[in-house]
Amino acid sequence: MAISFELSDEQKMLQDMVYKWAVNWLEPQMEHADEEDHYPEGFFQETAKLGLNGLCIPEEYGGAGQGYTEALLTALELARVSNALAMSWGAHLVLCVDNIRRNANEVLKQKYLPPLCDGRAIGCLGITEANAGSDAMSMRTTAKLTGENWIVNGNKIFITNAPIGQVLLFYCKTAPELGPKGISALVVDIDPKPEGYSCNKIRKFGMRTSPTGELGFNDMKVPKDNLIGELNKGVAILTGGLTTERITLSGCALGSAKAAIDLSAKYAKERIQFGKPIAEQGQIQAKLANMYCRYETGRLLALSAAAYVDTLTDKRGGKGTDLDMMAAASLLYCGEIGTQNCLDGVQIHGGYGYCLEYPIQRHFRDSKLWEIGAGTSEVRRMIIARELLRKY
Ligand SMILES: Cc1cc2nc3c(=O)[nH]c(=O)nc-3n(C[C@H](O)[C@H](O)[C@H](O)COP(=O)(O)OP(=O)(O)OC[C@H]3O[C@@H](n4cnc5c(N)ncnc54)[C@H](O)[C@@H]3O)c2cc1C
Predict the structure, then answer these.
(1) What's the confidence (pLDDT) of residue 4?
(2) How far is ligand 1, taken at its centre, from the CA of residue 127, in Å?
(3) What confidence score (pLDDT) does residue 318 get?
(4) Which of 160, 182, 329, 331 could form a disulfide linkage to 246, CB 3.0–4.6 angstroms apart?
């Protein structure tokens, strides 16, 4: 039986549309926006017009009804121009909106999904806390049911989109005495800011146009009915979501890996040293060849993970699933080759690669995030080894 590695015509059209839009609308703003660390106003309204904000949400809720393969391809094309805004888009769609779609009851879906799909609202997801990163289950934020509201106390850190967002999905302990078995997911409107909620923007060396927030909850009220899924069953939602998140976000790392090739190949053909383009030097050619091989390997690995999840009826990962291993492998590999390709790209650009006018340095600063965010490389290796050893 033949295996086809061809994308469909529709998938190619989606890629083309997203990349052309990013080049025309985003690219001219990126150098200045990165320098000033500001979010390009209107980004999410523009992506909504393209149908991207609810890309993998069913049409009945205002989405485009596509799969994770299309989400991966979209992240990749956006990230070729801006890894940071591809991350913001991915955090909105796969971390927040898709988790609401998969786990919330019908009333909450009807309330939250249409505005999140049509550009009226931007979503974010809060797992990480100041003292609970890789060990997310040790989170200390609590929610206590008092009358008609949950009273929430605690903090979240590194929350993508929080400074510009309207809807926050977050995890907290509703039964702290039960440890991880006492975690639940809640959704809350954060614009305007509810009483007892604070958000400070974090300064970063990369992903600068993607606003990241540090959140405080001080007796913040969340309506009782804003519970996502079942009480104390938040871990299944959290781990289930992380797999599709890791697969889609592999596209962000791949986008910078591809941009590094495009920028470096062009530069190498233009830059003359020793009387000829540096592209004619064997050592430069070897770097470009390695960059290409890494990118193609990562692309095929991520696409195979996306194609696999698109065939599953139950797309939940978690301990004991091949999906968990494939998703972790996809982001582990793509994250590491993304950084490596950008490092080689900077080297090919020589001193100019170190200067802020040349976008290769921005891709380098941005792509490092993909060895850290959505579970670090170390955590991904732990997951892969756990699932691999289970089979022997
Ligand atoms: C720009 C950005 C955006 C982010 N967006 C979001 C978001 O939207 N929502 C959200 O909830 N979180 C978000 N995060 C948080 C991210 O997921 C965490 O930073 C990540 O999970 C690591 O947690 P930590 O930073 O606390 O590192 P730590 O867990 O403290 O880890 C520090 C180091 O120790 C290593 N380490 C830890 N435990 C082990 C172990 N058992 N074995 C071996 N090594 C170990 C880690 O791999 C790492 O190298 C974001 C982070 C950044 C920087």
Answers:
(1) 80
(2) 10
(3) 79
(4) 331
